[in-house]
Amino acid sequence: MKDVITIKEIARQLNVSPSTVSRALQNHPRISAQTRDAVHALADQLKYSPSTIARNLQRGRTGVIGMVLPEIRENFFSEVINGVEELAFEHHITVALYQSHDRFDREKQILTMLASNRVDGVLLSVAKETQQIHHIQELIDRQIPLVLFDRIPPHIAAHQVECNMEKGAYEATKWLARRGHRRIALLNGPHALAASEERYRGYIKALLEEGLPVENVLIKRIDLTAQETVLKMNQLLSSPIRPDAVLAFNDYVALDAMQICRNYGLVVNRDIAFVSFANLPLNTYLEHPPLASVEQHPYQIGYMAAEILLKVLNGKIAPDDWQKVILEPELVVREQNEVL
């Protein structure tokens, strides 16, 4: 392997100090044009590449931000990553990506490791098992900049970026009610997720405004696994009050539930309508996707979360000047998929 060319080597060959070479490479006005030209010429000749690590260490940085999310295989979180990566790439920041796989213990271990490695900051979407926030508060107490996104625990002072899930559920439920559906079920997420409670509030508000009864038998909590979705959808279809529409936590839940409906001989979007969250791209290729999906703008969530974090790191936002960004949802309707 060839020796790595350093500032010291350039300084030795030009018989100047390393600090002079460093300033010349940055085109410092105190360095003469002759010296600057000589330094740049030799640097090009030797194929010198500045050390990002050394530069970051001089600034007290690592140049790395940690990103912790439940599952990378979910399209929603993949799009969030795209938003984060876009801005990070522009600013020469490395993103260390970790998955909690929706486990509290794993999430806790990851945050401890990131804190020990002194990453510059952390972007976090909590696991569905997360009910305690001591590990998150510890990160804040250690003055490691943190931005929470999408899945945000309640009652925590931190930078936050999310979509208004209560409004999304409200608009989706109203849309179903105004199309004549009277028994609208809710396949919701676990209690631990604040996003589940937001969906529930929007759903209930819409039912009451439309003069529809709140039937507890039509409200099911699931752990977001396919197995749990199958179990709870079977319960809904076996109930004396069978739903004529379902609002699902996300498109994955909707697709699993729709398959159970087919097993009962029901024609999806004729005998029972579906609306869900996430607006997965794969819906475009399905013969009978949900009639509508709530678009949560994951790319924008990721980009804005990274933007807030970088502003904190660059001193443009005070660490405790908590920023809270709430994006407006969009109900994407696919009426052409209704079966007559």
From TrEMBL:
Signal peptide: none annotated. Pfam families: LacI, Peripla_BP_1. It comes from the Bacteria. One of its GO terms (molecular function) is DNA binding. Keywords: DNA-binding, Transcription, Transcription regulation. InterPro entries: HTH_LacI, Lambda_DNA-bd_dom_sf, Peripla_BP/Lac1_sug-bd_dom, Peripla_BP_I. Residues 5-59 form the HTH lacI-type domain. CDD domains: HTH_LacI, PBP1_LacI_sugar_binding-like. PANTHER family: HTH-TYPE TRANSCRIPTIONAL REGULATOR GALS, LACI-RELATED TRANSCRIPTIONAL REPRESSOR. This is LacI family DNA-binding transcriptional regulator.
